[in-house]
Amino acid sequence: MVKTSKTYHSHGKLLITGEYVVLDGAKALAIPTKYGQSLTIEPNDNNTIVWKSYDELGKVWFNGEFSIDDSSTACLFGRQALSVTSENSNEVSNRLIQILEAAQKLNPEFLSDHQGYNITTHQDFNRKWGLGTSSTLINNIADWAEVDAYALLEQTFGGSGYDIACAQHNSPITYQLDENHSPVVTTVAFNPKFKHHLYFVYLNQKQNSRDGIKAYKSLNRVDDSIIKKVNQITESMIACESLSTFNSLIDAHENLISGLILQEPVKASSFHDFKGAIKSLGAWGGDFVLVTSETDPTDYFKTKGYDTVIPFEAMVL
Q1: Which GO terms describe its molecular function (predicted)?
Q2: What is residue 293's three-state secondary structure?
Q3: Which CATH code of 3.40.50.11540, 3.40.228.10, 3.30.230.10, 3.10.180.10 fits the domain covering 6-183?
Q4: 250 confidence band (pLDDT: 50, 70, 90)
Q5: Domain boundaries along the sequence of the chain
Q6: Considering only CA atoms, which of 162, 155, 123 is closest in space to residue 27?
Q7: Could you tell me which residue, 22 or 205, shows the higher pLDDT?
Q8: What is the pLDDT of residues 55-74, one digit of tens each?
Q9: Is 39 within 8 Å of 139 (Cβ atoms)?
């Protein structure tokens, strides 16, 4: 497929509205981030994939070697499927094998010539931040394998797919699943006049979104009226022209989701004395929160032990 070195790049993601309920058809506001991940492939002279992943400091955090073989136990579309194996099995290598084999099922030509590759990935954000280490990887591999990234996500990590939409877009979007569970993605102009009062704060705890989704689904409390309210908040946030109104929309959204997942809003549980609004993003309980403040809130959060405070314009693409 690829005879020369080639690099793919995908943007990170943040879900501003619609967390959890986006799975049930609510319209969510999502933003691609300036942070992202690249994947470079370079052919080598054997049928092995030599993989190195670099973190934001330029240090290798994963390396592995994978063999590409025909599988004697699987037949796909009348031909042998591929088996990707690694001598040093671990959680990361097993996940990479799953993704590569899923891509090959979606496109049987992928890796079918047994061409080996030296692969390097570089991300410019901390993996613990939850900005899309997995979704950017999925989108990059999908581009390489020439398969649909949403289908590859479904075969591997699952989820609503909003993170794939962010990986592929250069501006804020609304994301919604239609009645056929197909994504409807619309670019929007979300560039609030008060953006210099918006910040993203990392809560020092990586949240597993799959666990959050599982808990949400088990409660099964969402209905059409809640989805309608979330849609209205999303549209209102996009059009909002004042910080005070934006704060009210944040509070309304937090209270709505709090009632759905039976968790206390993050401001009430951890930052009750903060002078501004705070909104959880994505799966509650970790990753980033969106903060509004008339003044720079960095000192406040540092006294609480949270050192990563990123202004809106430094985060949003």
Answers
A1: kinase activity
A2: coil
A3: 3.30.230.10
A4: very high
A5: 6-183, 191-315
A6: 162
A7: 22
A8: 999 999 999 999 888 764 44
A9: no
Return the exposure string of 53-70: e unless at least 16 CB atoms fall within 10 Å of the residue's CB, then b: bbbeeeeeebebebebee
pLDDT of res. 86: 67
Q: What is the rounded average pLDDT for all residues in the chain?
A: 91
Sign of CA dihedral 149, 312, 304, 255: negative
Nearest alpha carbon to residue 204 among 132, 284, 308: 308
State residue 170 phi and psi, 5-degree precision.
-110, 10
pLDDT for res 181: 92
Mean pLDDT computed over 25-51: 95
**What are the residues whose beta carbons fall under 8 Å from the beta carbon of 34, sequence distance 6 or more?**
11, 12, 314, 315, 316, 317
**Whats the size of the chain, residue-wise?**
317
| Interval 252-276 mean pLDDT | 94
Predicted confidence band of residue 75 (pLDDT cuts 50, 70, 90): very low
CA atoms within 13 A on the CB side of 289: 25
Q: What are the structure tokens assigned to 1, written together?
A: 């497929």
CATH value of 191-315 in 3.30.70.890, 3.30.365.10, 3.90.180.10, 3.40.225.10: 3.30.70.890
Q: How far is CA 217 from CA 23, 114, 128, 140, 236, in A?
A: 9, 41, 24, 29, 26
